[in-house]
Amino acid sequence: MVEQTSQTITQKTPLLAELKKGSSDFSSLVQQLTETVGKEGVLYDAQELLVYECDGYIVDKNAPDIVVFPTSTEQVSKIVKLCNQYNVPFLARGAGTSLSGGCLPIGGGVMIVLTRMKQILEINLRDRYAIVEPGMVNLHLTNALKGTGYHYAPDPSSQGACTIGGNIATNSGGPHTLKYGVTTNHVLGLEAVLPDGSIIELGGPTAEVPGYDLHGLYVGNEGTFGICTKAIVRLTRDPESHRTMLAVFQTIADATRAISEMIAAGIIPSALEMMDQGIIEAVEEAFHFGFPLDAGAVLLIEVDGLEIALDEEVRQILKICNACNVREIQRADTPEERLLIWKSRKQAFGAIGRLSPSYCTQDGVVPRTRLPEILEFIEETSKRYGLKIVNVFHAGDGNVHPILLFDERDQEQIQKVLEASEEILEKCLELGGSVTGEHGIGVEKINFMSRIFNQTDLDAMESVRNIFNPRQICSRDKVLPPIQSDEKSTVKQSHPTRHAPH
Amino acid sequence: MSSTQSDSLEEFIPASQTELSRFMTDNAATSQKQIFPVGGRTSLSVCCASSLSGIQVCTSQLNRVIDYPVRDMTITVEAGMRIDHLNEIVSAEGQRLPVDVPQSNRATLGGIIATNTSGPKRFSYGTIRDYVIGTSAVDGSGNLFKSGGRVVKNVAGYDLKKMLVGSLGSLAIISQVSLNLRPKPETLSMVWFTFDSYQKIDRALEALTTSGTRPTAIEYCNSKAAKQIAAESRFELPCENDVICISYEGSNNEVHWQTNKIIEEWKEFSPLSAQIVDSDHATRLYNAFVEYQTSSDDPVTLKAVVLPSQMLEFVEAATELNIAVQAHAADGIVFGHLPDSASSLEDVKHILNRLKKEPSLQTGYLTIYQCESEWAEALPLFCSSPPGWSIMREMKNAFDPHQLLNSRRFAELVET
Ligand SMILES: Cc1cc2nc3c(=O)[nH]c(=O)nc-3n(C[C@H](O)[C@H](O)[C@H](O)COP(=O)(O)OP(=O)(O)OC[C@H]3O[C@@H](n4cnc5c(N)ncnc54)[C@H](O)[C@@H]3O)c2cc1C
Ligand SMILES: Cc1cc2nc3c(=O)[nH]c(=O)nc-3n(C[C@H](O)[C@H](O)[C@H](O)COP(=O)(O)OP(=O)(O)OC[C@H]3O[C@@H](n4cnc5c(N)ncnc54)[C@H](O)[C@@H]3O)c2cc1C
Predict the structure, then answer these.
(1) Which ipTM did the prediction report?
(2) CATH classification (class only), A239-348
(3) What's the whole-model pTM score?
């Protein structure tokens, strides 16, 4: 670990410039950015910038000063070098679906949006990899691979919008994580523009490269180690067959017991997703799937593999569900029915819009056997705060997503949401879990870092960040708790009333 | 704790992480002796110059189970735990760590993470990096830091545990590890095919990418290696020609179906022979494949990592040089044992220089991980700088600022 203490690092960190609109620096930076990416690739009009003042995490907001849309690695490198020259902070943005405020431009500066870099550069089935640009939408890669017998396994519920670059930065998971793993298990290598503008390759298309696992270290850096400009991802064989079921339970306790029994019996379904009564209601109202509205919980269970093995696996699952008082099990007999079942899961978030003007999705993790306790605690918290909380989550991984419903115009409700969230996450830690399974620390959970890790752990992380991003010019004040110093700027509140007290 | 002196290397055996951390802190602050972490000592000779002096820090007493919540399918153990001991504990619960480890009766968890050890089933299960969910480790200055946790999904903070995979004990001494486990499959079966031409093998391997079966491992070996592997497994198998051996795991039903199916599918590539190795013998044969990559009677063992589609090209060149070759075919990982006739350093360099020119290595890597100890100085582990080498050096400096941890090893890893 570096010998420097946090204090000395801060002292060495030069103050990043605040870009003042109308200043000569501002105009010449805009001009040089325009020369780099063309006029249509730069935004700096205050109205247009509003779109970029937050991502899926809407509690804190701050608009960048300039937004740029590069189309090549070289352009990204030039933009980053310009930011260094003008000493202004910058950060990457993919689709902006982050739920932890990863795209919040603290200190303003330049936002580099990668969505115009969305080509597939190579698909190699024999060697089982694809090379893609970072702005490629996750689902588009899946679609491009249709019919080849291969797919890209990580499939976050946001896959219709989120980008591969964003997935890599946040180490995204999804419904199929249980069997197939998260993003880091599927990234073989990448190209990145480091915060000083240099271009670097980590890992590669071969099964391994000698030395430290740097691409493994890069995945999940939440945009603080530079900008990913290319990704080499592993392709996975499509399973020969699936069985998809919806198991309806009278109570949440029965459903979670079934989950625990399945894992304990050594069954690893390809997906094991849970929806509680609140979500069932919302989904039913939006899509009319025919879910029983009085059910306590529904489990979406999918197993995949060789046709010859699946019926036996389904038999075992049915046995376990029956022993856990399942009320009924609906099986998808056709591809259309399977799609419909999945639609209910993937569009659950969309359906919540009908329940409430705003919602906050939490992302805690507990050991799988502790699911009953955390769900009970969530219910109790919901009652205690008088807040409606609904649950749809990756149950097989113990990754809960309590969704707290509120009205963002009501300051008191916001406060309750923050406090209730905090209590739930504390409980996850108490049960031996984590405060984030897939959404990341971002700005949202930064205060939890010193509760999960001690100062030595944080110093180790900081020394790694310092190797990539010594001046914290790239996506500043994310992931690690900011060092106490006058030099750091805080979030400028575009809407001060919505500010989340940390 | 005990401390002994042998030759120029002292030994320190910490009894706890805290003791390890205190020892490293003191060492960094006072004597600044060179530190060599050791686990099972199965491969300490690997590319390590013979004239080392300093302290071996041995993890043999860091071998306890910290926590095994069986129904969560995770386990937390100290890093000096031997792999066979770990296997025994989890196997009793119908679970396993699906990573192949040669000499598992000696190799330790810390050692296999530090060397990124893997074997045939990496094709379907990935490598140790995919199962480590949390680590604690002590850096060169004595700082005990952790990363990850004990749950299977967790993205809190940077993934420092990944950094330790393959770090060869040059960044930190791994002291405790949490692992994600998998259910133990019901059965294992293998099909042993022999072929008389590279063209047929290539077509057969390509066809595997769309096979109706789902192999767990695809091993290839030339006749020379096949003979040794078959002999080791004490099972009569044809080995006059090159071999592809495919393994399947799962329920009896699915394994049976697949072994027959692959024989059917591969008829069109006219194998010379196709033989199902039933589960009784399959385990022995499988173990012979796992052990072969590190069997060390030969003067030099090398490992090449190439694209799977270029594996045969590399193998053809190696076979011409009389190297016994085993490959995890679908991963493009090739192990080669140089012939006894390569008896001098000059012979070895001659062979290596020819291999290094192989076009398949343009996107790949050649590493040497076993050689006569007196050659170690002349044969660095990596034959070229890996991508990100400059960052690796900075990481080394950050975590081991006094260059105390396996430093000679690290500095000499790359051929200059
Ligand atoms: C409805 C909904 C469902 C979701 N479901 C899931 C889920 O199932 N699993 C899951 O893991 N997440 C989920 N998310 C969260 C989110 O979609 C993921 O974190 C996703 O990976 C973000 O991708 P993005 O392209 O939108 O990235 P952004 O939101 O644009 O950025 C996220 C972070 O990545 C950084 N970043 C983006 N691109 C790059 C790049 N090229 N280089 C470096 N850094 C970069 C940004 O700076 C930021 O820190 C969900 C979100 C929503 C709104
Ligand atoms: C460079 C190298 C590459 C190898 N690659 C492969 C491979 O690809 N496939 C394969 O099957 N086998 C490989 N092996 C051989 C062998 O399988 C492993 O070395 C063995 O499993 C390690 O276990 P061990 O406990 O015997 O370690 P030891 O032989 O005691 O030590 C091996 C290395 O790991 C370090 N080390 C040991 N314990 C720790 C610890 N707790 N923390 C930090 N560092 C530690 C040591 O300093 C040393 O560098 C490789 C060996 C080496 C040295």
Answers:
(1) 0.95
(2) alpha beta
(3) 0.94
